[in-house]
Structures are given as structure tokens and as C-alpha cells.
DNA sequence: TGCTTTCCGAAATGATTGTAACAGAAATTG
DNA sequence: CAATTTCTGTTACAATCATTTCGGAAAGCA
């Protein structure tokens, strides 16, 4: 009994590829190259696009084990449905049987939805401006987060420090603020993370920073932190999750994308800096070489 | 001049929904409910599934601004192509025109690919066991990360502390270890984050913890940290990114999913704990109420 | 080279599709 | 309640589609 029935259409085609004739393979590779949209239309269109005759397409379908082109096509539509339904976790469809109930899959779905919502909403120009601010060596960078987002501020700072100097993490202990604020001059940049429930400490620091003439970038959720009122730029992220808390994944993605953008803008300076850092780390014997 | 031409098919349908007749709306909602696969087949199949006549479908298509069903369908196929090509960034197709070259989109694509790879590879049973360990109130939890992953360990600890007691972050300053190790008894759990380049300090701590009889969970990248050799459980994540560094997004997703799993396992105890924490925060006036 | 086998597309055919025209039903209006 | 408009399905028909048939081209073999 052939196992093919359980396989996806794509795999089946790939597997059959060696046993096909020249024209048939021409069709198959064309479909695979534009999978699966190429085979969603009529057989005529597909044949013309693949530069073969329609009977060839029919023969291919039958060779793959389908009754004809419509049969093949409906199998393909089923595949499309599966691909579209959940971008991730396509593998668990057969393993679990039940509609994805495992927390891993539910969470993954939520995360992807958040990313989708977040990224379709971000204004590219705005993002670029923020990246420009952070890449400007004449500005000092400060970052702070709330109870939950403190880790993200930490992450931003520790990686940004590799790219450029003058990056400071402001802890949420407010006694560390005054000295930092003392150094803050007009043009400096404060990146403030604040998601619900919005914290007074963040708002206060933002207000103080604005008074010092700093450019404030607020990264918040879609209900928008009150601190955003004072901010020059606001980046909003979607954070819904099937749990008691929110998911800050899209915030991390924003941070990493900002880092990548800054790094690419300052590549010359960064590169030299990074290699220097590497040798320092090597010499301090903290790292083990990856074989 | 109607802006409809630039809109996606789905949006267009939703927008037109109020202006449709009963039978037309029946078709439209059916399509939207099973979007877009329902309308990828023949008009006859669609009409039967939506329980209307075929001319109704035709009239709907024309009302939406298409010349007929085939025209509508080909527009739909274009949409499918876009959806499949990149799960995110559906919005930039018309804004940019050029093939998505903006760092936001490239990064988003990479992240989704990482999530896909990570989640299709995780063993659910293994994951559940880790969640079980972390949810066990009789075990103490310790966490540590490397230079980059320190923020993730921090995040795990600060949120886990809400759910349960006895959670400790081990900083990467090794002078904080001995007192922690002193408390570590057989059965306790150490969660160690270690991605390339793998750090000696993590490896050392893991070895020490194993000697104390602790259960070690290593969260690493797909090249697998040497520390994993000593671990009871290993969760691997994909971290490739279009930048000079890696993207730790999938690691954060793992962390958050673990948190969600633990929280749902200990919901009774957690809930009481969380409400207590809320009142404490309220009383300390650190937060501003979200209106 | 001749013979066979395999492969491929033009042509023919039946089936299905998508659409226009029409007519009855339903809703709306005066 | 009749008149009118709007909506919807049945019917009919042209267009397209998918498939089978068949002849010739290409490749393999003696």
C-alpha cells in the first residue's frame, strides 16, 4: 500500500520528479517554482505557462495518482487551506488529530497574529526616523522599561552598546535617574518601553527627559501609553496572548529590527568596533570557541 | 475615483457587505468564513456551498467591481500568492511596489521562518515535562543566561516570580553563584540559556548544578550548546536573522509559552497570588490605573 | 538503418463552466 | 391593495475546459 496518500502534494511531486518525462517534469518544476498558485487556475493557463500541451498536464496528474486535473487541483486547494490556516505548526495536523489545542500551537498562532498586526501598522518612515536617531553618534541613548518590559530595555542596551558608545540603561530604581538626567542634553534620545498597565515611573521619566530637551521614543502596546503624548515617535505593538499575561514578542522584534537597522546604517564604525570587542572577549577567556 | 482598486479583495468584500442583498451577502460571508479557499474552485461548487444560485455569485462579483467570476477569482489568486509568499507584510505590496526590501519586512520574514522551524521541531512531550518541572512547587527554580540571553533569563524570572515563589535569577557575575549553589538541592531546576557563541560561564554553572543533583533545562540554538550534554531537557530554537546578530525571538516565544503552560497548570495557586500582587502594587501607588 | 517503444501535441469530443435573458417571487411604495 | 422596483432562481447558450484518441516525432535497440 503506497504511503503517498498521506503525503502532501508538494512532497509527492518532488518524490515523483525523477520518474517523469521531460515535458512532465517541465510542468512539475514550474508548479513547484510558483507553488501552489501556478496550479490554481485552469489547465490551459498552466499548460501555456509551463510551455507544454494540456494532455501533458493531465498525464502528470494521473501519474501522481489523481484521477485527473480537477482531482489534483482539489487536493491542492486542501493544501492551500492547511498552509493558510496556521502559518506554523503544519506538522501537528496529523499527529494530534484534534484541532490544535496544545499551548505551543495556540501560542504560536497568537504570536504570528500579533506580528502580522504590528508590522502591517508600523509606519516605515517613522521607523526609519527612529533608526536614524539611534544611529546618530552625536546623540546619547538612554533606555528604560517597566516591570515587564525592563528586560527589553536591557536587551536593547546591551546589544546597542556593541554598535555604538554612549548607551545607558536606566533601571526602574528612580535613584539612578538624577545623574543620568544630569547628563541628558538636548538632542539625546530616550527609548521608553511602556505597556499596560502603564507605570507612573515611566511617565515621570519621560516628562523629565522632555524638559531636558531629549527626543523621546515610546514603544508601547496598541492602547498607547500616556507617555506617548510627550513622545516624538511612537511605535505600537500588538501583545495579545492566550495566557494571563500579554506576549511581548512583537516588542522584541521591533527592538531587534531597530538594532539591525542601526547596525546597517553605521556599518563602517560598527564593524571595527565589533572586531575589537571580539578580541577583547577572546582575551578575557570568557568564551569557548565554537568549533 | 474609487480607492477600491488598491484594496485587498477581503477588505473590499467586507466594505461592500452592507450594500449587498440577502443572497449576495450569503455568498460573501461564506467566502469570508472560509477565506479564501471557498472561492478557489468552480462557481458551481461555491454557489452550492453557499446555497445560492450561480448567477447570484456572478452578480456579487460584478458588484465588487470585477468583470465576472473568473476575473474575481484571478484577483483572489493574486491575493493567495501574496499571503503565502510572506505571512506578514501584506500591506506593503502597494505601498512599496518594489520587492520588499525594507528591513522591517525582511526581518519579519526571518522571524516567522524561525518560529516555523522552531515550533515544528519541538517535542511536545519534552516541552510538557519541562513545564511540569517548573510548575512543581516543591522545586526551586534558578535561571541564568549569557551575554545576550541574560535578558531572557531576567524576563523568565521576573514573570515566573508572579506565578510561584522560589525563583532566582543568577547573574553572570560568578560571585553570586556560591550562595545560590549552596541552596540548590536535588530536584531543583536550573534553566540555562546559551546560544552561540557559547559561554564558558554557562557551561561551568551547569556542571556545578548537575553535581548538586539539579534538573537542568538548556534553552539553546540549533547548533546546541555544549552545556546541553549535561541537561535533562533541551529546547532548541532557530535564531537566524538578516543582521550581524541572531534573532532571539523564538527563544522569547519559548519562554512565554512555558510561562503560559506553568500558569495554566497552577491556576488555583497563581490566581490568588496574582490578585494579592495587584493589590500590593496598587497600594504602592507605582501604577496608574488603566482607565 | 529499420524496428520498436516511448513521448508529446494537434485535433476532436463530451462535459462543465460562466453568463445573459427571462420570469416569478418578494419587498417597497404610493 | 395595486403598482413598481428589487431580488433571485430557472433556463438556455456560448465559451471554455478536461480528457480521449491518434498520428507523428524522438529516443532506444538490434
Order of helices and strands of chain A, N to C? HHHHHHHHEHEHEHEEHH
CATH architecture field of the largest domain in chain A? 3-Layer(aba) Sandwich
Principal-axes geometry of chain A comes out as elongated
Distance between the termini of chain A: 46 Å
The number of domains of chain A is: 2
What kind of sheet is the major sheet of chain A? 5 strands, parallel
Indicate the structural class of chain A: alpha/beta
Number of strands of chain A: 5
Q: Pair with the most extensive interface?
A: A-B, 76 and 76 residues
Compute the CA-based radius of gyration of chain A.
27 Å
**How would you classify the quaternary structure?**
homodimer
Uncertain runs of chain A: 1-5, 87-99
CATH superfamily membership of the largest domain in chain A? Glucose-6-phosphate isomerase like protein, domain 1
What is the highest CATH level, the class of the largest domain in chain A? Alpha Beta
Instruction: Return the average pLDDT of chain A rounded to an integer.
Output: 83
Number of helices of chain A: 13
Description:
- The structure is a homodimer of 291-residue chains.
- In chain A, strand 3 (189-194), helix 11 (200-211) and strand 4 (215-221) form a beta-alpha-beta unit.
- Chain A has helices at residues 9-16, 22-33, 43-50, 54-63, 69-85, 92-96, 103-119, 124-135, 150-163, 177-183, 200-211, 249-265, 267-283, and strands at 141-144, 167-169, 189-194, 215-221, 233-237.
- Chain A has 2 domains: 3-85, Winged helix-like DNA-binding domain superfamily/Winged helix DNA-binding domain (Arc Repressor Mutant, subunit A, Orthogonal Bundle), CATH 1.10.10.10; 112-283, Rossmann fold.
- Chain A has a 5-stranded parallel beta sheet.
- In chain A, helix 2 (22-33) packs across helix 4 (54-63), helix 3 packs across helix 4 and helix 9 (150-163) packs parallel to helix 12 (249-265).
- Chain A has 291 residues and is α/β, with parallel strands linked by helices.
- Mean pLDDT of chain A is 83; it is low at 1-5 and 87-99.
- The longest helix of chain A is centred in the N-terminal third of the chain and has 17 residues, at 69-85.
- Chain A starts with 8 loop residues before the first helix and ends in an 8-residue tail after the last helix.
- The first copy, chain A, contains 13 helices and 5 strands.
- At the A-B interface, helix 5, helix 7, helix 9, helix 11 and helix 12 of A face helix 5, helix 7, helix 9, helix 11 and helix 12 of B.
Amino acid at each position: 500500500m503506497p504511503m503517498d496518500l498521506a503525503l502532501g502534494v508538494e512532497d509527492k511531486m518532488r518524490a515523483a520528479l525523477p520518474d517523469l518525462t521531460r515535458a512532465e517534469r517541465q510542468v512539475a518544476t514550474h508548479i513547484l517554482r510558483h507553488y501552489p498558485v501556478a496550479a490554481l487556475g485552469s489547465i490551459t493557463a498552466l499548460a501555456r505557462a509551463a510551455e507544454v500541451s494540456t494532455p501533458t498536464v493531465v498525464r502528470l496528474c494521473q501519474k501522481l495518482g489523481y484521477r485527473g486535473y480537477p482531482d489534483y487541483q482539489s487536493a491542492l486547494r486542501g493544501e492551500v487551506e492547511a498552509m493558510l490556516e496556521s502559518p506554523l505548526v503544519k506538522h501537528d495536523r496529523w499527529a494530534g488529530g484534534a484541532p490544535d489545542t496544545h499551548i505551543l500551537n495556540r501560542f504560536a498562532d497568537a504570536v504570528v497574529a500579533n506580528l502580522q498586526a504590528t508590522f502591517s501598522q508600523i509606519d516605515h518612515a517613522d521607523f526609519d526616523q527612529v533608526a536614524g536617531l539611534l544611529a546618530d553618534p552625536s546623540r546619547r541613548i538612554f533606555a528604560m522599561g517597566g516591570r515587564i518590559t525592563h528586560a527589553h530595555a536591557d536587551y536593547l542596551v546591551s546589544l546597542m552598546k556593541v554598535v555604538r558608545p554612549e548607551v545607558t540603561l536606566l533601571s526602574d530604581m528612580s535613584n539612578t535617574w538624577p545623574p543620568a538626567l544630569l547628563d541628558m542634553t538636548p538632542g539625546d534620545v530616550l527609548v521608553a518601553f511602556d505597556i499596560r498597565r502603564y507605570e507612573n515611573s515611566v511617565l515621570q521619566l519621560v516628562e523629565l527627559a522632555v524638559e531636558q530637551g531629549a527626543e523621546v521614543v515610546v514603544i508601547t502596546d496598541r492602547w498607547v501609553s500616556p507617555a506617548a503624548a510627550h513622545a516624538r515617535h511612537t511605535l505600537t505593538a500588538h501583545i495579545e496572548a492566550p495566557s494571563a499575561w500579554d506576549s511581548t514578542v512583537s516588542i522584541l522584534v521591533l527592538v531587534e529590527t531597530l538594532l539591525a537597522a542601526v547596525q546597517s546604517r553605521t556599518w563602517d564604525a560598527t564593524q571595527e568596533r565589533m572586531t575589537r570587542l571580539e578580541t577583547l572577549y577572546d582575551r578575557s577567556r570568557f568564551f569557548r570557541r565554537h568549533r
